């Protein structure tokens, strides 16, 4: 699976980082970084939590 983030929607509130800290990180520059945009299946649950946590609906999963 592949993670897509619409950075035009993202407001760097880090909610996805709490749900999936192994996949998302907001750094000191206040920008969101995807740490692994092609995660293993074992991380799907956390990724789905991150998708659902995002109030901007900025994260999507491409199968
Ligand atoms: S939860 Fe959404 S808006 Fe917040 S940092 Fe993550 S992608 Fe951006």
Question: What do these coordinates show?
Answer:
The chain is α+β, with helices and mostly antiparallel strands and 63 residues long. Helix content is 24%, strand content 22%. It contains 2 helices and 4 strands; from the N terminus they run E-H-E-E-H-E. Strand 2 (24-26) and strand 3 (32-34) form a beta hairpin. The model has no long low-confidence stretch (mean pLDDT 97). Iron/sulfur cluster binds next to helix 1 and strand 2.
Q: Label the overall shape.
A: globular
With helices defined by DSSP (H or I, 4 residues minimum), what is the helix count? 2
From the helix content, strand content and strand pairing, which structural class follows? alpha+beta
**What's the overall average pLDDT, rounded?**
97
Low-confidence runs: none
Strand order of the largest sheet: 1-4
Produce a short descriptive summary.
The protein is of the alpha+beta class and 63 residues long. The protein contains two helices and four strands, in the order E-H-E-E-H-E.
Blueprint (SSEs and pairs):
Elements lengths: L1 E4 L9 H5 L4 E3 L5 E3 L9 H10 L5 E4 L1
Antiparallel strand pairs: 1-4, 2-3
The structure holds iron/sulfur cluster.
Search tags:
63 residues; alpha+beta; two-stranded antiparallel ribbon; 24% helix; binds iron/sulfur cluster
């Amino acid at each position: 699976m592949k993670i897509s983030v619409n950075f035009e929607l993202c407001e760097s509130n880090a909610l996805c980082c709490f749900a999936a800290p192994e996949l998302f990180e907001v750094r000191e520059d206040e920008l969101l970084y995807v740490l692994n945009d092609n995660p293993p299946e074992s991380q799907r649950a956390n990724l789905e939590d991150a998708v659902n946590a995002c109030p901007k609906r900025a994260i999507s999963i491409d199968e």
